[in-house]
Every structure is written in structure tokens, then in C-alpha cells.
Fold this protein.
Amino acid sequence: MKQFRLNRLFHPRSRRCFDVAIDHGFFNECAFLDGIEDIARAVGIVADAAPDAIQLTVGQARHLQSRPGRFKPSLVLRTDVANVYGKKLPRRLYSRMIDDPVGQAVALDAACMCVNLFQIPDQPEVGEACVENILKLKPLSDRFGMPMMVEPLVFQPNEKAGGYMVDGDEKKIIPLVRQAVELGADVIKADPTDDVSVYHKVIEIAGGVPVLVRGGGKVGDREILERTAALLAQGASGIVYGRNIIQHANPAAITQALMGIVHDGLSVEAALKLIPA
């Protein structure tokens, strides 16, 4: 049954996935709301651009799933909430899974669930909580045929790069990706390495589990398109971008440009022409 839902997640021609993450409001950070203040409008614009999936929370999934008709992006349901992204961290950090995650995913007609696997300097308790979340989710995922996307995230020290600054060191990303696979991930959502040319090592360590690459912080059009093309050439099975879509001046156009690269093999120059000056 998992494959039936994965068939809704991956494009039938390219067998890749372009998932737009619009779940940022879950994490109680004001800066994360830029571009999604009007969530219904944001979801509508992205859905009209027709990526393969949109990642949403239990509280906002209705904006996608209430759209009529069969031809809309699949839902990836975010199943955990955390307080680890602030520039100044609170005294006590947590990562908590929603109640009855698979039941809620089934009720919302999701194609996949997403759960974090954090590695934060000097915060082993948060990593332990993530492992516990995944261990609880795995047998439910198998029993009900609901694919589990695990998101391994390696953070830089907060005093060095407070906020939402991930560590692109492949020596840290690779073992965490492998742990996610060992825990039973059906799909991996991982950060790009600082050196994109070594990303094939991340693909290799995943052992056949499809790897989707996170977008990270907002960058210029050429940079995100060039990085996407390079990561796909390294063997990535698709992308999960958030702020590079929802904070773009023209979310529909950048979505179309990225889809051209992901699914149609467009060159960067051809994709750039799809974005109005």
C-alpha cells in the first residue's frame, strides 16, 4: 500500500518529486511567516503552479484538500513540532509528535508523513526525542501503508549561527542520513552538502531510499536553479523547497522554472527564461 501513495508523490514521467514546504507556521517563529501570512492565498498560488506535493500541517491541510477535482498536488503531512529554530533558544527544547499521526494523515488523504531527525550541538535530548518519534511512527506507517519521510537536520552551534542555520558538512550529514534509513525511512529529505559535487555520497549511503534535497535559506534565482540541477545530476530524487518558493516575488514562476529542471531536464538558462524580469 505504501507504493500506491508513493505513486502519488513521484512524477509519473521523471519519477522525481517536487514538494513545496508551507508548514513553517508550526514552529512559532515570526520570520518563518514571511510570504505565508495569508496561508490560503499562498497555498492557492502554489497549488495552481502544480508541484507534485505540498507539505502542510494538520491545521492548514484543508487549504489544499478542500480544492475540488483530482488534479492537485499531493499532501505531505508534517507530524512533529519543535522549538529549535530561534536565534535565542528557550531554556528547554522539545520535539513533539502530533497525536494519532497516521490516523490524521489518513483522514486528510495524505500521500506521505514527514518527521524530523535533529542533530543539534550540545542538545542530545532533542535528538533522542526525534528518534523516539520515529520509532513510534514506523510500525504505524507500515501497518497503514502511509509512507514516512524522515528529515535529518544537522545544525550549526546556535552561538555561531543562531536561527535556522544548518551544517552542510558531508561528514555529519551522511551518518545522520544513514541513521534515518536504518530507522525505516521510506523517503529522505536532507540538506545539500556545502560541496555539491559530493552529494552522490549521500545518495549512496541512503541505499536506494529516494533522497529529496531541502532548499534551506532564501537565495537568488540563478543560484537555486544551478544548485538544483547539480544535485539532480548527483542522483537526488527531487527537491523540497519552502522559502525559495513562498518568499519569491513570483512563486508560480519559480515553481514552473524548478519543475522544468526537475521533470523536463531544462537547462538553467532555459529555466531562467520562465521567470519574468
